[in-house]
Structures are given as C-alpha cells and as structure tokens.
Amino acid sequence: MLNWIGIAAINMAIAVALGAFGAHGLKNLVSGQQLEWWHTATLYLFVHALGLLLVGLLIRLKYLTQTTAWLLQIGVIIFAGSLYAMTLGAPLWFGAITPIGGVLMIVGWLWLAFSAFKMNNLVAK
Fold it and tell me: Cβ(82)–Cβ(97) under 8 Å?
C-alpha cells in the first residue's frame, strides 16, 4: 500500500516550490494569462494535497480504500500539470486535457462521499 500521507506531503512541498517560482521567477517572462494558469494550477495542487493528506489518514485508519487517493492524485497531476505545461510553452491543445483532470478530481471527491455514506450505513446497522 502506498504511503498517501507522504505523497500528500511531497505534493505540498512541490506546490510551495512551484508557487514561489511562479511568483518570483515567471512574472516577467510570461503573459498575464499564463500567470493565471500557473496560479490556478498551484491553488488546485495545494487544495488537493491537503485533501490527499486527509484521505491518507482515513486510509491509514482503514476507513477508505486507495481509490479516492488515486483519483485525486491522477486528477491533480493532469489538471495542474497541463496548466503548468501551457504556461511554460506547451501547445495550447494541452488545455483540452485539463478538464479530464478536473473530472477525475470531482469523481475522487464523490467517491469519498460515497465511501463515507456507505461507512455510515455499515456503522448504523
């Protein structure tokens, strides 16, 4: 089983580093639109890293399977990764895969909700 708490911590460290790079290293090198992409990618990476931390704890406590963690992690890699790539000069068609990451993140959160309701029903019986 993967250590999702450790992966979440690595995501947080990457988010801090990329946020700092965007704020200080890119501001004079890219357009305003590209900086917005970078900011959005970093925000989603931060939020989902925190979420993954919680999910990692729930997995460790055996309240969840790894499904939610995988959906969130793959989703944020695709979502934020495509935005980072476009900011750094990748073709704009990369924007077509950004929503795939978003959908995976949404499904991850819905899977968490489903799992929580399922767990609640098992405990209540």
Answer: yes
